[in-house]
Amino acid sequence: MTLTVSYFAWVRERMGVAEEEIVLPAGAATVGDLVGWLAARDERGARAFAEPGRIRAALGGAMVGATAPLGDAREIALFPPVTGG
Amino acid sequence: MIRVEVGAAAIDVAAELAVHDGGGHGASASFIGRVRGDDGLTELFLEHHPVLTATGLDELATEAAARWKLGALTLIHRVGAMAPGDTIVLVLASSPHRGESLAACEFLIDRLKTDVMLWKRESFADGRVQWVEQREGDHARAERWD
């Protein structure tokens, strides 16, 4: 299954891209699994996702936690806590 | 009348107030957030998520309109690169009486900090560039409205 992953703020800078298509590895069932897989994949992922507790996610336009199932989602956004306003 | 907007264009406060105030409301509360030039800050960059940021602003405005009796509500957020003194955010809330307009205005300012997909990056004259960290106090203020 392919998933479009978009990154924001310092997560985007550390990943070096704003968006990418990935083929989800077998066994990656939750948002936390995906973040863990990205952290283990390469050096930039290791830097961007060194502290998974600081990562927030939005699945199909809704904020979700690390234990949320990816289900049949086609796109996910990963980013730091917001600082707006 | 609810007006919500997010974009890179400069915010024309006087023009927005004129549009907002067309109905001649009894009480209008306003909040103008500007870029502070502290510590030699030269640029504030606001990153947003095209869909989630707009959705978050819409939901906040809708919630405010449901909580208080508002004759008009304007919520405009700027994104992209800004200089010290630039207006980042404009909140205008009008109602027949001051209590509701003031409360709605404060609610929107507080919840903007935690509920809307926006990230701030600061650049300084000495070359430093840093992403602003979320502050615990912002959450405490936002949670007062739960």
Automatic annotation (TrEMBL), chain A:
Domain of life of the source: Bacteria
InterPro entries: Beta-grasp_dom_sf (IPR012675), Mopterin_synth/thiamin_S_b (IPR016155), ThiS/MoaD-like (IPR003749)
Any Pfam family: ThiS
Protein name: Molybdopterin synthase sulfur carrier subunit
Top-level taxonomy: Bacteria, Pseudomonadati, Pseudomonadota, Alphaproteobacteria, Sphingomonadales
From TrEMBL, chain B:
Assembly and binders: Heterotetramer of 2 MoaD subunits and 2 MoaE subunits. Also stable as homodimer. The enzyme changes between these two forms during catalysis.
Reaction equations catalysed: 2 [molybdopterin-synthase sulfur-carrier protein]-C-terminal-Gly-aminoethanethioate + cyclic pyranopterin phosphate + H2O = molybdopterin + 2 [molybdopterin-synthase sulfur-carrier protein]-C-terminal Gly-Gly + 2 H(+)
Gene3D superfamilies from the UniProt entry: Molybdopterin biosynthesis MoaE subunit
Coiled coil: none
Function: Converts molybdopterin precursor Z into molybdopterin. This requires the incorporation of two sulfur atoms into precursor Z to generate a dithiolene group. The sulfur is provided by MoaD.
Pfam families xref list: MoaE
Biological process per Gene Ontology, one example term: Mo-molybdopterin cofactor biosynthetic process
Name of the molecule in the record: Molybdopterin synthase catalytic subunit
Lineage of the organism: Bacteria, Pseudomonadati, Pseudomonadota, Alphaproteobacteria, Sphingomonadales
Keyword list, A-Z: Molybdenum cofactor biosynthesis
Enzyme class: transferase
Origin: domain of life: Bacteria
InterPro entries to which the protein is assigned, alphabetical: MoaE_sf (IPR036563), Mopterin_biosynth_MoaE (IPR003448)
Family: Belongs to the MoaE family.
Assigned EC number: 2.8.1.12
Keyword Metal-binding appears in the UniProt entry: no
Record-level Gene Ontology MF annotations: molybdopterin synthase activity
Pathway(s) this gene product operates in, as recorded in its UniProt entry: Cofactor biosynthesis; molybdopterin biosynthesis
